[in-house]
Amino acid sequence: MDVIGPSKRRRLLLTGLVAAVAAPAVLTRPSFAQPKGATPSEKAPEKPGEEVTPPEDLMREHGVLDRVLMLYEAGMRMYGANEDFDPSLMTQSAGIVRDFIHDYHEKSEEQHVFPRFKAAGKMTDLVGTLERQHEAGRKVTETVLRLAPSGRSNADDRRQLVAAMQSFITMYRPHAAREDTELFPKLKDVVSAHEYDAMAEDFEKKEHELFGADGFEKMTARVAALEQQMGIFDLNQFTPR
After folding, report:
1. pTM metric for this prediction
2. Which of 25, 64, 87, 94 has the fewest Cβ atoms nearer than 10 Å?
3. Residue 93 half-sphere exposure, CB side, CA atoms within 13 Å?
4. Under the phi-then-psi rule, with left for phi > 0, alpha for psi from -120 to 50, and beta for the rest, what region is 214?
5. Confidence class of residue 50 from pLDDT cuts 50, 70 and 90?
6. Between 1.20.120.430, 1.20.120.520, 3.40.430.10, 1.10.540.10, what CATH number should domain 54-238 receive?
């Protein structure tokens, strides 16, 4: 019996303990809990639970961002080939960037992450650049949302739209990569253990306020639906032949 908690702070209860509560006479482990033929002494040590840490939380949200960048790239290819497709797919993609990335993910960084590095006097140049890129990104997203409805029918709007999406991709790929590899791994060095735990709680609380329970899962489902409509959902198509 698997018990999964809220969207981000998933607490994986020990299967043996759960089974003991549900059916005291039968204590079993799922097949993945120990290797075949393992003796009791060879079983993996049991852990009371695991949580999604603030850096892990932010990094997986970058995964949502990168999937939207792929939607942008697919749209740019279609515009370049003059293919007929629903322009609302680009509007919806940019809407996810606005709602989930700018208004939630980046706000979390600006309110909880960046100030800690500034207070510690560490990586301040990088933080300043990241903040400026957030502001620039919001302006580009406004442009995409404004031009997407007419991008299929108006050549000049299409040119500006493609340029805006390309500039967004060009900035955010290195932006997210630098955060993932340089900033986030150092977060634990500039906060106390209590602040670190509280930050995770703050992230989850805000996500629930904005998107309801399982907000991350709902957002990834929205992205997947757009990928299917844009014809880029099947991962096999990206494998070199």
Report:
1. 0.79
2. 25
3. 31
4. left
5. low
6. 1.20.120.520
